[in-house]
Amino acid sequence: MKELKRLGEADYKEAVALSQFAFQYRLSEEEQEKKIEEFRKQTVFGHKIEGKLAAKLHIFPFTCYINGKTFDVGGICSVATWPEYRRQGSIRALMQQALQHMREVGQTVSYLHPFSVAFYRKFGWELAFTNRYYTIPINHLNRDWAGNGFIRRIEADIPLLHAIYTDYAKIYNGMLGRDDNWWERRVLKDPSQIAVAYNEAGEPGGYIIYDVKDQIMTVKEMVSNSSNEWKLLYQFIANHDSMAEKVTITVPENDPLPFLLDEPRFEQKNVPYCMARIVDALAFLKKYPYQMKEATKSESIIFRVEDEFLPENEGIYELKAENGIMNVCKLAEMQEDRGIRCSIQSLTAMLLGYKRPLSLYELGLLSGDIAEIEQFEKLIPGKQTYLIDFF
Fold it and tell me: What does the entry give for GO biological process (predicted)?
C-alpha cells in the first residue's frame, strides 16, 4: 500500500535516518534531536510504501524580497529516496503535493537548491540565481580605496547585523528575510570574526563575517549598503596581507570589483546556485510590484502561460493599468490569437529579474508580438537576483 502524507513526530526518526543515508553524514543522538527540532518548524511530506518511509521532502517557510516587496516562499530541501524505491514516481508525487500545499498557505513562489537542474526543470523550476566566486591574491587589493569612515570588529550582535542585512537584501531580488533563529542556527552557527563598517557619521552600513586560516582569508558573508562601506570593507580585507596570501569571497553576479583593480586577472567563477518557481501565477502577478510609470493605459498585455506540471497555472492572463494600479485577471477564453506565450519557468525567470523578456525572446523561450514584449520589458524593474543563504 502506498501513502502520501504529512510526517509528524512518529515519523521524524525515519526521516533523519533517510537524510543521513542520502546526504552521507552521521549525527549523534544530541544532533538528531536538534535536527528533529528543525523539522518541527518545517512542513515535511513523506511517501510511504507498505508502512515504510520510501521518500520525503521538506518545505521551509521563508519570505523573500522582490523589487522591495515581501513575498512568502516555500523553500524545498532534503529531497531524498531510499535506493530500492527510486524511479517509482515518489518524488513526482511529493513535488505535486508540495506545490498544492504551498498554494494553500499562500507561498506564491518556491526555491530549491538542485542536485540536477534538468531534473527539477521537469517540475517547473528554473534557474533564478547565479553567484560569482572569487579567489583573489590579496596583494591585488592593495590600493587606496578612499572609503570614508571606520571598521570595528564586534562580537555577534544579531539586531545590528540584521538591520544592515535587511537594507542590503532589498537592493536585490530574491534575498531571504531572516529571523533570529536563522541567524543563530545558520549564519552565526560557527565561531567567526565579525567586522562592521561605519560611515563618517558613525552609522553602520556594512559588515563582513570571515575566518583566516592557513594563509587564506575566507569571507563567509559580506554586506554593504553603499559604495562607501563596500570600499571600507575591501580596505579591511587588504589589511590582512601579512596574514593571508589570498581571499575567497562570494558576490553577486554583477559585482564590479574586477573593473576597479589594477590587476583584475584572478580566479572568477559564475556558478548557477538556486532555482525558483512561481507556485500561484495569478496571485503572484497580482502582487508583483510593476514599474507603473512605464505602464500604457490604452492597451493591456496578454499572457498565455504553460504549466504542464501544475495545470492550475495554465491559461490566459490580462495585465491592464488603471489609475496607477496594475489590474490582473485570468480570462476564461479569448477569441483573438494574441498574447505573449511562455512557460512557467520563463515567467519565473523574468519576474524575478534573472532574465529579461527580450533576451528570452531572442532565445526562442518567449513568443508573441514584439511590441507587446517590449512593453512588458518596461514594466519589470531591472534588479539583480542574489541569494546568500543555503538551506
Answer: aminoglycoside antibiotic catabolic process
Are residues 150 and 243 located together in one domain of the fold? yes
The two most distant CA atoms of the chain are separated, in Å, by 71
- Tens of pLDDT along 332-391? 887 678 899 999 999 999 999 999 999 999 999 999 999 999 999 999 999 999 999 999
In the structure grid, which three cell numbers stand for residue 207, read together?
559588515
Any bridge partners for residue 317, and if so which? 303, 330
CA distance 364 to 383: 23
In terms of domains, do 146 and 228 share one? yes
DSSP three-state, residue 352: helix
Angle between helices 29-39 and 12-23 (to 10 degrees): 110
Residue 314 lies in a domain: yes
Q: What is the pLDDT of residue 173?
A: 99
Structural domain that includes position 172: 132-273
Q: Are 346 and 363 in contact (CB under 8 A)?
A: no
Determine which helix (DSSP H) or strand (DSSP E) holds 376, and give its type and residue range: helix 370-379
Name residue, grid cell 495585465: 319
Number of domains in the chain: 3
Any idea what the CATH number is for the domain that residue 58 is in? 3.40.630.30
Q: What is the pLDDT of residue 299?
A: 73
Q: Which residues contact 381 (CB under 8 A, 6 or more apart)?
A: 67, 289, 291, 353
Q: What is the pTM of this model?
A: 0.94
Convert the pLDDT of each residue in 101-123 to its tens digit: 999 999 999 999 999 999 999 99
Are 159 and 246 part of one and the same domain?
yes
